[in-house]
Amino acid sequence: MKRARKPGLSEIEAEIAGLLDRSTPELRLAWLEFRRAGPPLGLSRDLLVRALADELQQRVHGRPSRALRRRLQSLAGASDKATMAVDPGLVLKAGTTLVRQWRGHTHTVLVHNDGFEHEGQRYRSLTAIAERITEAHWSGPRFFGLTTRARAVASAGG
Q: What is the per-residue pLDDT for 86?
């Protein structure tokens, strides 16, 4: 059953909406036409639709610039290494010490280029440290007061 084209939809929007009406074999064939290779094994129908929609949008609106792709890759790499806090404007430099009081005990964390150190043990993320300290799930950056929300609560006296 084909969806009726809604008034006001651009041609590309209609084509993207039409992806949902295609069978999985038709989506795989479209992937093959775009990429000149079959989709990865095990790729779900949902991801096929999303990837094809992205491909269609990029063909119409253009691909990201090389500089933007490099910047995104850099941000993804920094996130993987846990060297970047939730607030992208906040970059913790190696050697920085974070201090947090929790239930009468002072906890200090030393920032390294490739992670964090707490009580002589290395961690990839602040969240792992916050969870170890509190024995509950906590956002590490929020626990150590590094997020915008945590700073707002602290300055309000909460």
A: 46
Q: What is the DSSP letter of 138?
A: -
What is the secondary structure of 66-135 as a DSSP string? HHHHHHHHHHHHHHHTT-B-SSTT-BPPTT-EEEEEETTEEEEEEEETTEEEETTEEES-HHHHHHHHHS
Burial 65-77 (b: 16+ CB within 10 A, else e): eeeeeeeeeeeee
**Backbone dihedral angles phi then psi of residue 110, each to the nearest 5 degrees:** -100, 130
For 84-95, the pLDDT digits (tens) are 444 555 678 889
Quote the CA–CA distance of 66 and 142 in Å, as a whole number.
33
- Per-residue pLDDT tens digits for 13-46: 888 999 999 999 999 999 999 888 888 888 889 9
